[in-house]
Amino acid sequence: MKTSGTEFQSKLPDIGTSIFAIMTKMANDYKAINLSQGFPDFDPPEELKKLVNHFIESGHNQYAPMQGVKILRERISDKIRKLYGSYYNPNHEITITAGATEALYTAITTVVKPGDEVIIFEPAYDLYTPTVVASGGTPVYIPLKEPGFTIDWEMVNNSLTNRTKLIIINSPHNPTGSVLNRTDIIKLEELTADKDIFILSDEVYEHILFDNNRHESISKSIKLAKKAFIISSFGKTYHATGWKVGYCAAPAYLTKEFRKIHQFVVFAVNTPVQYAYAEYILNYEHYMELNKFYQRKRDFFISMIKTSRFNLSPANGTYFQLLDYSGISALNDIKFSEYLTKEVGVAVIPLSPFYSGINDRKLIRICFAKKDEVLAAAAEKLCKI
Ligand code: PMP
Ligand code: GLN
After folding, report:
1. Residue 1 clears pLDDT 60, i.e. is over it
2. Quick one: pLDDT at residue 258?
3. Cβ < 6 Å from ligand 1: which residues?
4. How far apart are CA 173 and CA 193, in angstroms?
5. Between the CA of residue 357 and those of 123, 244, 352, 353, what are the distances in Å?
6. How many other CB atoms are found less than 10 A from the CB of residue 85?
7. What distance in Å separates the CA atoms of residue 62 and residue 106, rounded to the nearest whole number?
8. 244 Cα: distance to centroid of ligand 1 (angstroms)
9. Which fold has domain 2-44+288-383?
10. At residue 383, does pLDDT exceed 90?
């Protein structure tokens, strides 16, 4: 490898800047309403902010333990047991991470070695592929089946080889809003039975499901939990994406290896916020009401764009909604998203960056975790085109 910049051999030659960063910058540059990157435009609850201040003022400002503050790990363990009926030992099976991002990176790095294959469903959240590739693994892509963006288990079965090391699932799913059901979990159990395949379950939207959908945490499956990393994020649940605190629940033998990497990525995570979450997580109502809170926003936005020329099928979960613009424009989704941002004044996310290959599905993603007046103003603009 040459040390001169021009001949530097990238480990990730095909990876550019994340589409979320690009579109938020474009939204700011063009003063567009930002429905692109997924984050709420409202604050975390007052009580939670007060708790963080309290723990800063009362001197909880130095390094937390590498694996996370004990009381927070204990309360996460209690919460998982209450919601999903499974027990994770807080000392050996739960680790607090710098958001789900670090947890996903660390989990993938923990298991993937050069030559390993990793099943990734497309469209896929942007982090999975580069992390697999940086670990020397080979992504094996399986398209989600339309309509509904569901998993074709027959195709999964046909894609398994003796090099398959990991299957990454994400439910509720970013960017499509689809949700795995009980039948999917049983299929996954069957296909991985007696195989040395690990599961990485990205469950950051575990509290944002609509209509009659229920979250099927992989922790509920005794068979899968034995070989799974369950990842979640407080950022989504408490409207605090900027605080970057999440966690990984995994059996002790996996957690032991996970922590070997975690300690050299971040060592430990933001102390006062961990103490604040340890208190606030006791407030059961907050996360139990989140479904209703976001369902109202989803329905509000959908009702506001009813007269537009976009087509949609309501998301089953997450705070994202896909919009089909095939009846409006022949532009590809990147160009159409640029047009919406620069000329219509609404920034959105194109779907193609969530795919490895060329894709022209005429779909864009909007984030409805926004104040009603912002959603209404964006919808008004979208109805005019
Ligand atoms: N996974 C998915 C599916 C996400 O949508 C996000 C963030 N939007 C993350 C992981 C990362 O979460 P965090 O912000 O806690 O790092
Ligand atoms: N996950 C968020 C989204 O889907 C963005 C997080 C990020 O910018 N990395 O928009």
Report:
1. no
2. 99
3. 38, 99-101, 125, 170, 174, 202, 204, 233, 235, 241, 244, 246
4. 24
5. 10, 30, 8, 9
6. 11
7. 23
8. 9
9. Aspartate Aminotransferase, domain 1 (3.90.1150)
10. yes
